[in-house]
């Protein structure tokens, strides 16, 4: 500032050279918005793929445990319980295969909607595998077979 309260000529020249361009501000705002949108879509795609992979892993674990329960039930000699446990183990294995197929579909999906649908299908298949595992373990418990939940045989 000068002695009379006005701006110095240096400051006025600097401001004149550095004027803001409203068009550039709009372009930058648009670019930032597009970048944020792209990053959000990429994150969502990764989330769908990860969700589907996690569901497939959960279904595989459930199928393995259901088969263990069926094997333990068969060892008891209770044919009816062994048949029920094996049927449940087979259902868990089928659900595990469905979850794995859905996870593959999520990885190769061409659109976000398809990836989301495939991830949802993998989750549903994992839920079915867990239900089948529970049924196999209940059959094992009915035959006093060792269950996956406990190191000792189940009690009636």
Short description:
The chain is an all-alpha fold and 156 residues long. The protein has helices spanning 9-17, 22-74, 79-108, 112-142.
Structural class: mainly alpha
Query: How many helices in DSSP terms?
Result: 4
What is the mean predicted local confidence, pLDDT?
81
Write down the Rg: 31 Å
Low-confidence stretches: 151-156
Measured distance between first and last alpha carbons? 94 Å
Give the DSSP E fraction (strand runs of 2 or more residues). Answer: under 5%
Name the shape in a single word: rod-shaped
Number of extended strands: 0
Please write the string of helix (H) and strand (E) elements.
HHHH
Helix content: over 70%
The description of the largest β-sheet is: none
Q: Can you offer a commentary on this structure?
A:
The protein is mainly α. The chain has a domain at 80-142. Helices cover 79% and strands 0% of the residues. The chain has 4 helices and no strands. Helix 3 (79-108) packs antiparallel against helix 4. The chain is rod-shaped and about 75 Å long.
Helix and strand topology:
Layout: H1 9-17, H2 22-74, H3 79-108, H4 112-142
List keywords for this structure.
single chain; 156 residues; mainly alpha; 4 helices; disordered C terminus
């Amino acid at each position: 500032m000068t002695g009379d309260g006005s701006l110095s000529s240096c400051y006025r020249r600097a401001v004149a050279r550095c004027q803001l361009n409203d068009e550039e501000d709009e372009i930058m705002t648009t670019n930032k918005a597009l970048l944020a949108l792209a990053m959000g879509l990429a994150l969502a795609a990764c989330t769908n793929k990860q969700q589907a992979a996690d569901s497939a892993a959960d279904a595989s674990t459930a199928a393995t445990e259901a088969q263990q329960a069926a094997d333990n039930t068969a060892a008891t000699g209770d044919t009816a319980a062994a048949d029920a446990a094996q049927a449940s183990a087979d259902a868990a294995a089928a659900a595990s295969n469905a979850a794995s197929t859905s996870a593959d579909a999520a990885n190769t999906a061409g659109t976000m909607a398809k990836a989301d649908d495939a991830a949802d299908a993998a989750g549903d298949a994992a839920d079915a595998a867990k239900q089948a595992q529970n049924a196999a373990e209940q059959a094992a418990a009915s035959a006093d077979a060792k269950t996956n939940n406990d190191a000792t045989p189940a009690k009636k």
